[in-house]
Amino acid sequence: MTIYYSLTFLLLAAEMVTFCLLVSPLPFTVRKNLFRFLSESPIVAKVAYGLKISFIFVGILFLDALQRMFRVTAETEMAKTGGQSMHDVRTETNFAARKFYAQRNTYLTGFCLFLSLVLTRTFSIILDLIHTQEEYAKLKKVVGAGAKGDQSKQIEELKKKLAASEAKDRDFANLKKQAAQQADEFDRLASKYNEAVGAVSDKKSD
Question: Which terminus of the chain faces fewer neighbouring Cβ atoms within 10 Å, N or C?
């Protein structure tokens, strides 16, 4: 394997490790800090810029490997259907090795490009999910604070109504007590008045 295909394989392995890290079930705080660092760090931005340039070269390698694979396949089919002899073991092995290397390079570069697209899309989706969860948490706090404020207002209103009701009950009890006292006083005066009227009547009759 040449040096640029070896670097492509290392890049593919790094993409696989990164993808496993992104989809791993991390705690929300750890994931939020990790994605915030990846999205806001200038060092990561420079690395991402360098990777974009490297993916351009990987795309060129993919096109070259695809062209070679088609050419080797066509040459193999031509050798089988043409007048060339495929009974020679070394010739057949040579064609098979060339076809294998061409297919290997095509799959290697193709999967590297495909996984780069998957990583980009996965990163953006998870980042949007984190932002949505943060907005939901903020909205939940606001709604909770508003609900607590409404409950406090209701409690205060109920306390005021209870105090007013207790005051009315006290006023009614005082009024009832005064009415009872006045009724007793009226009965006492009425009794005295009846006694006085009865005494006057007895004197007149005598």
Answer: C
Helix, strand or coil, per DSSP, at residue 26: coil
pLDDT: which is higher, 177 or 148: 177
Which pair of structure tokens corresponds to residue 149? 């404020």
Q: Are 37 and 136 in contact (CB under 8 A)?
A: no
Transcribe 136-184 into DSSP letters.
HHHHHHHHHHHHHHHHHHHHHHHHHHHHHHHHHHHHHHHHHHHHHHHHH
Q: Say how far apart CA 199 and CA 191 lie, in whole Å.
A: 12
Whether the predicted pLDDT of 147 surpasses 80: no
Residue 133's pLDDT band (cuts 50, 70, 90): confident
Burial 24-41 (b: 16+ CB within 10 A, else e): eeeeeeebbeebeebeee
Q: At 85, is the secondary structure helix, strand, or coil?
A: coil
Q: State the Cα–Cα distance between residues 58 and 5, nearest whole angstrom.
A: 9
Question: What amino acid is encoded at 100 in this protein?
Answer: F
The answer to whether 55 and 120 are in contact (CB under 8 A) is no
- The residue ranges of every structural domain in the chain are 3-153
* pTM given for the model: 0.59
